[in-house]
Amino acid sequence: MSTVELTPELLAFVTLRLRHAVSNGRYLTPELLSQSIEEYTERAEVPDATLPQASGQ
């Protein structure tokens, strides 16, 4: 298992993904969390990728 630094941007992205999954009846699993982190990492590597911005809310 690898470790990932939880930046505010990563936390915001993963939170949105997991909320969406759970609201659609999916169980929160380690695989779903890992998939969300991998997707964030892939998008972060693309300069024009749209990532959610951390808000003060």
Instruction: Name the overall outline.
Output: globular
The percent range for strand residues is under 5%
E-strand count: 0
**Average pLDDT figure:** 76
Low-confidence stretches: none
**How would you classify the quaternary structure?**
single chain
Distance between the amino and carboxyl termini: 31 Å
Number of helices: 2
**What is the percent of helical residues?**
40-55%
Secondary structure elements and pairings:
Layout: H1 8-23, H2 30-44
Helix pairs in contact: 1-2
Tag the structure with descriptive keywords:
57 residues; mainly alpha; 2 helices; 54% helix; globular
Structure overview:
This protein is an all-alpha fold and 57 residues long. The chain has a domain at 8-14 and 21-45. Helices cover 54% and strands 0% of the residues. The chain is built from 2 helices and no strands. It has helices spanning 8-23, 30-44. α1 packs across α2. The chain is globular, with a radius of gyration of 12 Å. The mean pLDDT is 76.
